[in-house]
Amino acid sequence: MAGGDEGCRLYLITPPALEPRAFADTLARALDAGDVAALQLRLKAVEEDALRRAIDLLLPVAQSRGVAFLLNDRADLAVRHGCDGAHLGQEDGDHAAARKLLGPDRTLGITCHGSRHLAMEAGEAGADYVAFGAFFPTATKQAEHSATPDVLEWWTEMFELPAVAIGGINAENCAPLVRAGADFLAVVGAVWNHPEGPEAGVRAMNAAIAAA
Ligand SMILES: Cc1ncc(COP(=O)(O)OP(=O)(O)O)c(N)n1
Ligand SMILES: Cc1nc(C(=O)O)sc1CCOP(=O)(O)O
Ligand SMILES: [Mg+2]
């Protein structure tokens, strides 16, 4: 999941709840609608068995299209199931241990809220990208932290490590984040809740990124 040289790219996160077999088709159509760098499977409310079934059904849909498949919260399952990486928050265990578990070839993403300090710690722990947010109000989760574009400007001037922006981002509000240097825009609602459907959501996000 390279960043920087390729300009800003879309990082898609799954809806909070899904039925994997039916969702596989929806996902395939969304990924075929335009450029998507990565897909994160984020299912917070399912048992491990169901999560593992969802990984096995959805991972091939992403990987067969050259889209990196990352797992939310679980570096251990990411390794066991052949995912391309894992995304961990500040409450999701030891980041350096996750780095070791994932090895050099899988991606480790770390949530840093709006904090320069957490971002530098994430870099030291071996993150492949740092994620800042929430930039805007979001209906997808109760976001307890916020971020402003200046943290993206600072980070991208100081460090090579890619920066992800997340939280309430859509085609109408994303331009300042792209201009501030975000390497990836991570979205849920802007794609899955787009009034004309997810494919239109992917197209709208890519058009907005290109126009920023
Ligand atoms: C790309 C990206 N950035 C941030 C998050 C949030 O992670 P976390 O703080 O662990 O919260 P949950 O997603 O686990 O609710 C993310 N998932 N992805
Ligand atoms: C999963 C997540 N993490 C956030 C953070 O701020 O760390 S905001 C968020 C939800 C992103 O969904 P939407 O694009 O619908 O706002
Ligand atoms: Mg988490």
TrEMBL record:
Gene3D superfamilies: Aldolase class I (3.20.20.70). Keywords: Magnesium, Metal-binding, Thiamine biosynthesis, Transferase. Its cofactor is Mg(2+). Signal peptide: none annotated. Pathway: Cofactor biosynthesis; thiamine diphosphate biosynthesis; thiamine phosphate from 4-amino-2-methyl-5-diphosphomethylpyrimidine and 4-methyl-5-(2-phosphoethyl)-thiazole: step 1/1. 4-amino-2-methyl-5-(diphosphooxymethyl)pyrimidine binds at Q40, L41, R42, L43, K44, N72, T111, K141. CDD domains: TMP_TenI. Its EC number is 2.5.1.3. Pfam families: TMP-TENI. 2-[(2R,5Z)-2-carboxy-4-methylthiazol-5(2H)-ylidene]ethyl phosphate binds at T138, A139, T140, G168. It is an enzyme of class 2 (transferase). Mg(2+) binds at D73, D92. The keyword Metal-binding applies. It comes from the Bacteria. It catalyses: 4-methyl-5-(2-phosphooxyethyl)-thiazole + 4-amino-2-methyl-5-(diphosphooxymethyl)pyrimidine + H(+) = thiamine phosphate + diphosphate; 2-[(2R,5Z)-2-carboxy-4-methylthiazol-5(2H)-ylidene]ethyl phosphate + 4-amino-2-methyl-5-(diphosphooxymethyl)pyrimidine + 2 H(+) = thiamine phosphate + CO2 + diphosphate; 2-(2-carboxy-4-methylthiazol-5-yl)ethyl phosphate + 4-amino-2-methyl-5-(diphosphooxymethyl)pyrimidine + 2 H(+) = thiamine phosphate + CO2 + diphosphate. Condenses 4-methyl-5-(beta-hydroxyethyl)thiazole monophosphate (THZ-P) and 2-methyl-4-amino-5-hydroxymethyl pyrimidine pyrophosphate (HMP-PP) to form thiamine monophosphate (TMP). Belongs to the thiamine-phosphate synthase family. This is Thiamine-phosphate synthase. It comes from Teichococcus vastitatis. The gene is thiE.
